[in-house]
Structure formats: C-alpha cells, structure tokens
Amino acid sequence: MEHADPLLAENQALRRLLRTLTSDAAYNETVMQRFQERELSLLSAADLPDLLERLTTGLRASFSLDAVQLVLFDPFGVLAELLGGLGIDPKSLPYLVLEGDMRAAAARYPDLHDPWLGCWDGQSHQAMFPRCRLCSVALLPLRQPDGLSGFLHLGSRNPQRFQAQHATDFLARLARVAAVCLENAVNRERLRLTGLTDGLTGLYNRRHLDKRLHEEITRACRHQQPLSCLFIDADHFKRINDQHGHAAGDQVLIAIAKRIREQLRGSDLPTRYGGEEIAVLLPQTDSTNARLLAERIREHICATPIPVDEAREIAVSVSIGVAQLDSRCEQPVEVLAAQLLEAADRQVYQAKRDGRNCVRPAV
C-alpha cells in the first residue's frame, strides 16, 4: 500500500495532462477549421471588391476582432485605377489604405517576412489602426512572388489575443493565401480592364462609358445625388496632325489624357469618346463643382507645351463643355443618358464658337 499514493498521484496527473491535451487539441481543431473556412472564403471571392470585403469586414466578423486594416502598396496607382474603374473611390473604404511610398511604409513594420504579434504600442500602432484603442495586435506581411505587396493588420482589445510567444503558423498561412488571392484578383481586373480601355490613351472606351453611365444615372436618381459630365475637345487638332504628323498628334492625345487623369478622383470616369474628344463622367458632382474642375483641367493642359520628340514641343489648349443630369429623373435611363451627353457635347461647340480654350456650362 505504501506505493499506492505515488501511483495514484501519478495517475491523476496523467489524467489531468490528458484532459489538457484533449482540450488543446479540440481548441486547435476549432481554430484550424475557422482559418480553413476563411481561406476558402477568400479563394471563392467573386472579384476584387468582394475579396477586399472578405479580407477585412469578413475577417473581423469571423475571428471576432476589434479592428482590421488592409494596407496595399500601390506606387503606380494601379489599384486605385482598377477600383475607380469599378466605380469605387479607395478613400471611401475605411479599412483600406493604398500606399504610394513603399519604402517609407515598409520602414514602419518590425518584420517584413513573418507575422509579428505583440502588445499595443500607441506610438507605433495608432497610425496603423486609425481611431482605435487596442491591447494587442498582429501585423501580417503579404508576400507575393515578386515581393512584398502590403500588410494585413489585426487588432484586439484582449491583451492576451496576440502575444509574441504565440505560434504564428495559421496566421502565416492566412497571409500567404490572402497575398495569392489579391494577386489573382488584381490580374483578373487588369485583364478585364484591357477590354474596356482605349489602346492609345489608356482612357476608358465608349462601351464602358455606356455601361457605367446607365449605372451612375440609376444610382444618382435613386439617392438624389448630382451627376455631371464634361466633354473635352483639343483645339485645332487637325492642324496639329497636318503640320506635325499623326505620330505627334498621338503624343498630344496621350499627354492630354494623362493631364486630365491627374486632376480626377478615383471614382471619375475619363473616356476617349471619339477622335480627340474626351468625355468625363463625374459622380456626386454638381455643375458648379464640375465647372471648377473643368477650369483646373483646362489650365493644367495649356500650362506647359507638350514635347512630341527631342526637338519639338506643341502648345495645346482645350475647349470644355459641362452638363448636369436632370435631377427630376422623369425620363427613362436611356433618354437621360443621351440628354446628358448631348448637352455636354453642345457646350463644347459653344466653347469653340466663343474662341476656344474656355469652359462653357449648360444653362
């Protein structure tokens, strides 16, 4: 009997250990299942906006997080342009940040290769989680074959949620899946966009304008929001082609398109309407603000001559017509679309008659 107590104690200890291991195994299985569900959700996203939603709002809900922020590096504005082509202003997405300066952004992170977990540090983390007060955070680098594409920030008010000593296998796998999904979604959008853009200027084509115009008119009428349109026409463009050649004319069109885009928001829709005429659809913009924008575009285009080769540069001006959607929305969408475009087009011809290099709004 003298050995009974030690054996009993050892047996009880083993039972406790077994219960702990069983509990840990069940917990890990639950966690793994949640990660797998989230990964499958990312892989099944319909398009780029849907993926961004699942990566942020969806992740926050499924993992019961207090904050999620997605930072994507966009030094050439590709993501901003893709979202703009879908009618989404990136600034309207509170959980998304597009970083133009990759080097400065990357310098804020303690690890560029593996997930970093730790306690909240207001000085370091406040900018990563705007308007949030958290207790622990996880910073997941999103790495693609050609390098770092951004970071996924996870935040919790539970100080024990993300600790430096915690394993990061599941989080690292989630980050890899997210990075691959983002790359695929961006590539799909870029392929789709090539069928919607003009090969010379990179602006959208008429087919895309027709589709988006119907969508924006429907949205404007439903929510009682203004919608305006600009028609921009290069002055004396035939003379440029005749005097300098069509190659020089092409360079002028490319430069005009670039200068127009530099003045627009991500949600605006610049389109090569035909020849040297460019239409710009301006959601949530009334005629007063559209006219101010048109003046900025006109001034920006004519401010400096456009170089067309090593020895030549051409001074260029534009005439711009402005029109706003009839706010009463009493006609069918097709009629309203035609009226908006025709009104802006008429004002371009009025600007031409008034001497060119000016803006004329519809009255």
How would you summarize what this structure contains?
The protein has 363 residues and is of the alpha+beta class. It is built from 11 helices and 12 strands.
Secondary structure elements and pairings:
Blueprint: H1 4-43, H2 48-62, E1 67-73, H3 78-85, E2 96-99, H4 102-106, E3 116-119, H5 122-125, E4 136-144, E5 147-156, H6 169-194, H7 206-223, E6 227-234, H8 237-244, H9 246-261, E7 269-274, E8 277-283, H10 287-302, E9 306-307, E10 313-314, E11 318-324, H11 333-353, E12 359-361
Parallel strand pairs: 1-2, 11-12
Antiparallel strand pairs: 1-5, 3-4, 4-5, 6-8, 6-11, 7-8, 9-10
Using only C-alpha atoms, the radius of gyration works out to: 28 Å
CATH class of the largest domain: Alpha Beta
Per CATH, which architecture of the largest domain?
2-Layer Sandwich
**Ranges with pLDDT <50 over ≥5 residues?**
none
Strand content: 15-25%
Number of domains: 2
Average residue-wise pLDDT:
89
Provide the succession of SSEs.
HHEHEHEHEEHHEHHEEHEEEHE
Q: What is the CATH topology assignment of the largest domain?
A: Beta-Lactamase
Query: Could you name the CATH homologous superfamily of the largest domain?
Result: GAF domain
Helical amount: 40-55%
Please give the number of β-strands.
12
Silhouette? elongated
List the total number of helices.
11
The profile of the biggest β sheet is: 5 strands, mixed
Structural class: alpha+beta
Strand ordering within the main sheet: 2-1-5-4-3
Q: First CA to last CA: what distance?
A: 107 Å
